[in-house]
């Protein structure tokens, strides 16, 4: 019987192709400088060959709609960026990236404005301003920061710095004690090789959790995320409100116990032990004058799968 064809690699597998290539190049270095140089030259020749082919393909396209479809494909777009063939300029790509995460920011009561994009010889910079009420405490800044960083760097890998300034005007008729100051949401972030933060909080890893898509409206589920090789993952509590899913660390900020068994009434999550309620749609802020809040986690669709971002502290799991 003929062998069954292998399944085509997924976008998630291709995301790590660069790391695998670099690992192979590093392994070649063990054979000496000459072997390493030949391996690097081989990679350059292959990349150049495929780049030339892509350039001819893009040059022969006379249908703008087809070019748009290619630019919308994450894998194809990444290859076009490598070879300088992407049909959209930097400003357009950053704008489109922010547009994709706006619904997520809206779930935290906020929005983001793109103020400027600068291109310098040492990289590109992006200037943003957060707007809206962002009803939570400053811990929600990590959630917004990760969502915005990831979206911008995926669409524009040449961006080397992202800076946030205070919005030109802020609403006055709001409860400012429940707001995140706009200038504290992101401060200034400089990208490093692992997408870590300038604050030294460690690298961020996105973990696919396809089971989250199985939650029905009004359901609450607990999941262990990030555990590999026998290690214990982070306990995550996910809630489905209408068509939206929200993720939080599985810990009640009031009684410090697990939220296992919590119930959801509209958007209010009730701790089964201390009975305190939290608004899961607005970053887990406490209801009924409760000043405590849940710890939100970034939750976005990546490669068609709902994924949770966990940031690792230096040398320790998140």
UniProtKB/TrEMBL annotation:
GO molecular function annotation: 2 iron, 2 sulfur cluster binding; iron ion binding; monooxygenase activity; oxidoreductase activity, acting on paired donors, with incorporation or reduction of molecular oxygen
Keywords on record: 2Fe-2S, Iron, Iron-sulfur, Metal-binding
GO biological process: iron-sulfur cluster assembly
Rieske domain location: 206-308
Pfam families: NifU
SUPFAM superfamilies, A to Z: Fe-S cluster assembly (FSCA) domain-like, ISP domain
Domain of life where this protein originates: Bacteria
General function of this protein: May be involved in the formation or repair of [Fe-S] clusters present in iron-sulfur proteins.
Protein's UniProt name: IscR-regulated protein YhgI
Lineage of origin: Bacteria, Bacillati, Actinomycetota, Actinomycetes, Mycobacteriales
């Amino acid at each position: 019987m003929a062998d069954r064809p292998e399944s085509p690699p997924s976008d998630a597998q291709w995301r790590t192709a660069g790391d695998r290539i670099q690992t192979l190049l590093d392994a070649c270095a063990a054979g000496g400088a000459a072997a390493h140089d030949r391996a690097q030259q081989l990679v350059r020749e292959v990349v150049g060959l495929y780049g030339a082919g892509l350039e001819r393909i893009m040059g022969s396209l006379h249908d703008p709609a087809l070019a748009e479809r290619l630019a919308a494909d994450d894998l194809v777009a990444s290859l076009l960026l490598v070879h300088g063939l992407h049909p959209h300029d930097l400003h357009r790509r950053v704008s489109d990236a922010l547009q994709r995460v706006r619904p997520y920011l809206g779930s935290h009561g906020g929005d983001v404005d793109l103020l400027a994009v600068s291109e310098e010889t040492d990289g590109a910079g992006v200037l943003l301003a957060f707007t809206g009420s962002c009803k939570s405490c400053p811990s929600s800044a990590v959630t917004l920061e990760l969502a915005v960083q990831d979206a911008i760097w995926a669409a524009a890998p040449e961006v080397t710095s992202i800076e946030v300034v205070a919005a030109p005007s802020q609403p006055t008729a709001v409860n400012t004690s429940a707001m995140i100051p706009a200038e504290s949401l992101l401060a200034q972030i400089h990208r490093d090789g692992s997408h870590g933060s300038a604050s030294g909080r460690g690298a961020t890893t996105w973990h696919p959790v396809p089971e989250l898509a199985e939650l029905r409206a009004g359901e609450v589920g607990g999941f262990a995320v990030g555990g590999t090789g026998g290690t214990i993952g982070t306990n995550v509590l996910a809630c489905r409100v209408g068509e939206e899913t929200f993720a939080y660390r599985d810990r009640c900020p009031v009684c410090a116990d697990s939220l296992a068994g919590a119930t959801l009434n509209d958007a209010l999550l009730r701790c089964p032990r201390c009975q305190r309620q939290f608004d899961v749609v607005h970053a887990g802020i406490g209801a009924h004058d409760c000043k405590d809040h849940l710890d939100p986690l970034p939750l976005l669709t990546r490669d068609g799968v709902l994924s949770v971002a966990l940031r690792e502290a230096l040398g320790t799991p998140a």
